[in-house]
């Protein structure tokens, strides 16, 4: 379990995160949702360990890791821009981290991931020969061969659309289920958050507006911000998400 307790992050007088407290259960997919500048990426960075917290605690499986360096936390992230190595082909990108840690994943496990992500026919291709969806799958495979204790995804679907986006969503859910992997996804898109997640965290100005299941967010928004943010974004996209969760958009 990941526990955040009274988490705060400030840059001088600018308070980016204010009193963030929540529990994320093992194997849950949790989306962090909110408008630009609400603190989503900062929250991801403090969990990963890229950014120090100003106050509060980060507890993972009963251990306070607030002061633990990033490389000792055992978490891993797929960045929005994939951060793949352009000079290596897809297979060498996937197995890059295993060069110095060869015992983390067996060859059989690597091949299983490649099959799961349907990458077999792309392994010899250079990165610039891959589509956005293929790059996303390579980035996921590269992260997963390292067997992270926690998977962090920063806007994983923002560069994708249509059938490709739906395919990647399904693969993320399959991976989380098959590998029993706790997953945190940062997104600005309510549709993504509500259809991929077990829980949704909605941030506004660095504070929690609501944390609950997609059904709770749709059917029982806790305040006007949640109601208006979700309604506005989904109305713009003409999305039928309300009927999917038994709510209405009136």
Spatial order of strands in the largest sheet: 6-7-8-3-9-10
CATH superfamily name of the largest domain? P-loop containing nucleotide triphosphate hydrolases
Task: Please give the CATH architecture of the largest domain.
Answer: 3-Layer(aba) Sandwich
* Residues in helices, as a percent range: 25-40%
From the N-terminal CA to the C-terminal CA, the straight-line distance is: 37 Å
For the secondary structure, the number of strands is 10
Number of domains: 2
Main pleated-sheet profile:
6 strands, mixed
The CATH class designation of the largest domain is Alpha Beta
The poorly predicted ranges are: none
Structural commentary:
This protein folds into two domains: 1-74 and 150-210, P-loop containing nucleotide triphosphate hydrolases (Rossmann fold), CATH 3.40.50.300; 78-148, no CATH class. 34% of the residues lie in helices and 24% in strands. The protein has helices at 40-48, 90-94, 107-116, 132-144, 162-178, 190-196, 214-219, 224-236, 241-244, and strands spanning 2-11, 14-24, 29-33, 55-60, 63-64, 75-78, 150-154, 182-187, 199-204, 207-212. A six-stranded mixed sheet has the order 6-7-8-3-9-10, sandwiched between helices. It is globular.
